[in-house]
Structure formats: C-alpha cells, structure tokens
Amino acid sequence: MNQIFHITQSTVWEEAKSTGIYLGDTLESEGFIHCSTRSQVVKVANRLFKNQHNLKLLCIIPSKVKPEIRYEALEGEEVFPHIYGALNIDAVSEIIDFKPGEDGSFILPANI
C-alpha cells in the first residue's frame, strides 16, 4: 500500500509539528491512531467529521512509519490501517486542507 490517510484538527497538527511526533486522540483511548485507505477517506470523513472545518488530511507513507501498522477490521467493517504508537511526522508526505462542501459533506480531494 503506497499511502494511508488520517484526518485531524489543524490545531492538533500544528502542535505535532513542534514536537516532531503526532499523537492521535485514539492512541491514548484505544491504543492506536486510526487511519484510512484511499477508498475509506470520504466514508470516514462523512461519518465522523461532517460539517467540521479546520481539518487536515495527512497523507502517510507506510514504509516510513516507525511504529507498527496493523490492518484490522472494526466490528464487522472492512479492514482499516492502525498505527500502534506515535506517528513520526517525517512519514507524512503531504498535508491537505480538508474542507467540507456547502452541504457539510466531504469528497475525495483531486490531488490524492
């Protein structure tokens, strides 16, 4: 898999840049950072982030991620990538402003 994706708040990403690592909110509560494949990004965004602004879509190169990545199914759903540990920000190849449309829903950015 060439890329995985993670949606985060802009303020959280700015903080990560200052420390060199990204600690997703699910890392502490669930033990991993939840990511998505290209085909899952819009589904996840519309289910969890509809109408939210100030989001970033992190494009991550799996081969550069230092902690373990596990591809796991969540409660009968398709397999999602999970990063078990803090994400080293040098594994992030691109950061895209991820904005909903006028109806509050997301579409896949053309540049990914």
Automatic annotation (TrEMBL):
It holds the Pfam family DUF952. This is Glutathione S-transferase. PANTHER family: BLR1139 PROTEIN, DUF952 DOMAIN-CONTAINING PROTEIN. It comes from the Bacteria.
